[in-house]
């Protein structure tokens, strides 16, 4: 799983969902939760399998998920029933607060896989004070869990704070989620930017997320997908620099020197591993665009 | 419990304590700990009930607490005995480092409530490296616990660091305390500002605390109480904007759209809940000033 | 243990190791891990005891440690064997990810102490997502553990992020390590600065570390040792101010006032303890230079 960009659209908006195949997001989410009003959820579930069949027929690239309603909601049985009959890659679970919140979804994934359908991956959204507090236990709770997302807007609303562009008020929670995800071997996907007309703000926030160790970002619009793919892909400059660094290291090692000076910095194992990771991602990107 | 401002005065300064009824703090603390020198603690305890009776007779608005000495101190028996004979709302416990530190206070609260006096609420001060590390367990340890305060000055002194105006050195601890408090359903009260002549610094620090999710702030002076009440109350602009947002959401929902654009931002559940919380606080403030 | 500066050199570079006695680092580390290429580790181990004997004969001031390879590496037996036959003060263990990672080292320390050699202290390097997540349990796992170091470069590489000069991307991990260390009564030693030609960046990063509560800093070059000693020693101004503050407090206490105004700030216990800690370090520095 390699998700630089994850694009949402409400499950009750077929005209938006049918456009998914036009965009280059690494993952798409059909949203039965906050995006779909209470009164429309039933109809949205009824249309789900047809919509999925439509976008598959249009050769959707990227993974396809359904966001169910929150654990404990009265919608869960119907959400799981309709989602797992459709040809999707997995489920996104909002407002995960405790490890037990995943039980119902893990069991549904096992049942669905038993009936011969494709693998069901779970993505957990950490977006409450309880979820942030319990994220370490959540990250290890369920073998189908493949990624954690951090929901900064919901988190700060749950805790009673206020979001700022700089984002220091979510730095602790955002950091705790990415550390727990990576320590558990999961992907980590960063918060949305709600100021949908401000590209610079999206880019700054994406760069901060990338620096923290996030692999990608939730997107509200196709425009944000382009920006996320850009920020979370290695730049040509990074790729070139990584090639030079690895070459310099290999030459130094051959000459018996373990720590060397490369363009004014000490090369040691962490810098080296980062350089190699950049080259690895670059090679996967070349494959996916070729 | 709704504490935007919590004003301290030393227990050995009756001339300051008697002024409490003049101020509009949401809570007041008579301080038997750091504010009162060792040699004066005995006399301060003897006068406590009379002082409390005096401020009650002067129609003190706001809750009234006594800060005892730290758990494990030789003063605790005498502190609890004098404090719980006075007509107070509860106890503030400094330097809580482990869940067990609350046991003695929880038991004293139960005993006092059994004798027919009013409810005894506990406020725990998290202000050591151990307290920050153990705050999750502390937050769930004792049913009388209603709030956690973060003591940034004491914390940074305990850990051997240095405070700055920007405050990045306490961001982790300050965030961990508010997350633990809110996940446990407790109020969260933010650190003091010791630069008592710098209104701008107080205001900046209060805004940062509010953004993080704190409900209010500890105050060293009446002047700080006014500033804290201001920052931790919703502004008229926030109230008005929240009214418009809720109205726009309701109109959109009626029309079957779940995610809409409101003044350049996407409205979804978190934004909506925040707006509704602002209107709720505003309505409580109107009641308390009417 | 009091380590303001800890200087590394690769174990396969005797010409660098022999210069240790010229420098005033509080601790020195002979690096068998990342600094020494795979092909040179065997020869480096064989020369270790002689090198240590040489620097001891040159009256090395400061503690002397060997950094072994990571727990679980195939080098560990040979590393421990050669290191504990040399006249060193202890071991630095890289990439500690779980409490169990310390077991082998604790046992080796006990065995070595039983044979009559000097005490073996352990320093644990926290530099992976797992290590940061588990740092509280790690800090309490092993009685020989005397210090934790935070490795920001390795950590951010492990988590897949990117380092910046400002360092917000490591603030959570760096804070979590110092809080766990101090709550467990351990020393805390801060991250390296790899931009070895930028004194200002080193100084800024060292000041941030000191503010967070770190006692000292890992250094890649003798130049960084001078800067670290400077930042992590109290300044004459701080010493003088601390003397004035303590004197003012004592006068106020004698006069029965517990909270007083000192140069525009409230003096209370945390400020007082900090002032006394500054005077204590200053007195130890005077001893060590006399």
List keywords for this structure.
homotrimer; 2 domains; 48% helix; alpha/beta; two-stranded antiparallel sheet; 290 residues; TIM Barrel
Describe the structure.
The first copy, chain A, has helices at residues 14-17, 41-57, 76-85, 103-114, 129-133, 135-139, 152-159, 171-183, 199-212, 222-232, 236-254, 269-289; strands spanning 5-10, 27-31, 63-67, 90-93, 121-126, 145-150, 187-190, 216-219, 260-262, 265-267. The first copy, chain A, has 290 residues and is an alpha/beta fold. Chain A has two domains: 5-231, TIM Barrel (Alpha-Beta Barrel), CATH 3.20.20.60; 236-289. In chain A, strands 1-2-3-4-5-6-7-8 form an eight-stranded parallel β-barrel, surrounded by four helices. A two-stranded antiparallel ribbon of chain A has the order 9-10. In chain A, β9 (260-262) and β10 form a beta hairpin. In chain A, α2 (41-57) packs parallel to α3, α9 packs parallel to α10 (222-232) and α11 packs across α12. Chains A and B meet through α5, α7 and α8 of A and α8, α9 and α12 of B.
